[in-house]
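Lab notebook page, bench 4
Experiment: in silico fold of construct C2
Operator: M.H.
Input chain length: 150 residues
Purpose: comparison with the prior construct
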Amino acid sequence: MALPTGKYLSLILNSAIFFLEYRMAIKKKDHGRGTALASSSAAAGVQIKGRLWLEKDGETFLSWGRVVLLERIRDLGSIAAAARSMNMAYSHAWSMVADMNRLAGEDLVARIFGGKSGGRAWLTPAGEAIVADFWQMADKFQEWLTDQKF
């Protein structure tokens, strides 16, 4: 997946801040439940904000945080390193990866277990595709929000 372009960064306001900080190796300061993935323009001081996630059979399959975890696994080559970079417990990251693999019906993340040289992890072609698809949905979500009038 190519690095985000200027258009991409301007469309996804809050996630763009996170993306830039990550690319510059600066930890995101806050990612509470209230962080919006996308928002409309502020008309008369009122702004519509929203978060995007996909569920399968009532379980969260993909969300902004899960996709960032996948990207960090791809970039860092390790579930443990990806978890550390997000201030997340390894067990929580591993649980999210296992859930995403199960809900996808195929592995999004493949791995080789540790040993003398240590383990490593990478995204499968299905994992790469799901990351790209999520960001396309996020772009469409932002476009829809931009068109909304309050």
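Observations: The radius of gyration is 16 Å. The first helix runs from residue 6 to 11.
Next step: discuss at group meeting.
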